[in-house]
Amino acid sequence: MSHIVIIGCGIVGAAIAYQLSKIEGLKITVLDQQMPAQGSTGAALGVLMGVISQKTQGRPWKMRRISVQRYHSLIPELEAKINRPISHNRQGILRFCLPGDDLDKWQRLIDIRKADGLPLEMWDVERLGDRCPQIQTSEVIGAIYSPQDLQVNPVELTLALVEAAQQNGVKFHFGVTVAEYKTISLPKNKYRCRQVYIKSLDETKTAPALPDVDWLVVAAGLGSLSCLQGIKGGKLRSLQLKRKSNLDNKFTIVPVLGQALHLQVSTLLGNPDFQPVITGDDVHIIPVAKNEYWVGATVEFPNDIGEVFADSSLLDRVMARAISFCPGLADATILRKWSGLRPRPEGQAAPAVGYLEGWQNVLLATGHYRNGVLLAPATAQAVEKMIMNRTYANS
Q1: For domain 90-149+255-344, which CATH number applies: 3.30.450.40, 3.40.47.10, 3.40.430.10, 3.30.9.10?
Q2: Can you identify the CATH homologous superfamily of domain 2-81+155-251+347-394?
Q3: What is the crossing angle of helices 11-21 and 372-394, to 10°?
Q4: Residue 12 and residue 368: Cα distance in Å, rounded?
Q5: Which of 357, 359, 364 is nearest to 383 (CA)?
């Protein structure tokens, strides 16, 4: 029985674990220093902008299409398996068009999606005002509506994936870290990870011994490079772009901070029967419960010495912009503010999904930046394909 070790239990690691758990003959172990969904996933808004994305070809579009289509079956599949609902919004995504936007470009996208059998609509201001009376349309010149795109609660989804994977036999170990990798040399300057030794972060506990490793999948987001410190000499082969050279020198993941708000209003805004995710000028307004909304998110890069701190003034700007679109938010009560760091790769496009070059059995599934929740299903399918293809080729 092949043993697969996955490092990282955010949305990506959990999705990979669940995807692989459905394959007979695999033993799967997931490791994380924290409990599930505590890193980037815990700060995500879960807005799945696939069909409405301007990506139209190549792997960036293919991953989006696979993921959005999979979500429409994955959510009910998980709900049935764990016997509880997962908070999500299937009423689509509505994107404002503002002065300076190229409406012809959007019409071309609508035509492309129509040829693929994917609905996408352009609304004029009159229709926007009729369908969404809570919107202030004075600066809006139109809107694009994607009925197939959706939004999901990232934490609930991750916990559901973990529970469903556990039901399928996956073993999860939280509060542990990698102590050492045992590797072996192969011909032609190749290497293989043979064993992963872990230690508990709680000194009163002893970490379990793991069986020999057939595949190691690193899906630890910002922690991915530190997880690979014991994999010396590795090189990343991206499945998206051209090959990159030495991992340590050319491939870096940097933290990009995002802040968001959880708001409560006294009365529901707009039409109670039509509450899509609304987005404009890179600000999202997300209905999440009766009279409750999430608003976000900022995009804050590290300073010159690599530090990144939450700037409250940037969150104030996001809130002000949301109010300019939806004045009813002005009197909202702030229930919660939160922030999180998202892993953005440098030296290649996001995400970094591929074999670690020079290593026969090490895969990366990391660096998803702002699209970890969106691309998790497609990433899981890509990892499954890589494992199964190479397994069959070596058998």
Answers
A1: 3.30.9.10
A2: FAD/NAD(P)-binding domain (3.50.50.60)
A3: 40
A4: 9
A5: 364
- pLDDT score for 232: 55
Tell me what the mean pLDDT of segment 225-242 comes to.
51
Residue 218: exposure state from Cβ atoms within 10 A (0-12, 13-18, ≥19): buried
Beta carbons within 8 Å of 313's beta carbon, 6+ residues apart: none
Q: Which residues belong to CATH 3.30.9.10 in the chain?
A: 90-149+255-344
Tell me how far apart the alpha carbons of residues 249 and 382 are, in angstroms, rounded to a whole number. Answer: 26
Band (304; pLDDT cuts 50, 70, 90): confident
The fraction of the chain above a pLDDT of 90, given in percent, is 78
3-state secondary structure of 395: coil
Rounded to two decimals, the pTM is: 0.93
- Count Cβ atoms within 10 A of the Cβ of residue 390 and give its class: 0-12 exposed, 13-18 middle, 19 or more buried: middle
In this predicted structure, the answer to whether residue 164 has a pLDDT above a threshold of 70 is: yes
C-alpha 222/C-alpha 352 separation (Å) is: 12
Per-residue pLDDT tens digits for 244-287: 333 344 568 899 999 999 999 999 899 999 999 999 999 999 99
The pair of structure tokens assigned to 15 is 């999705």
Token readout for 263 is: 């708001």
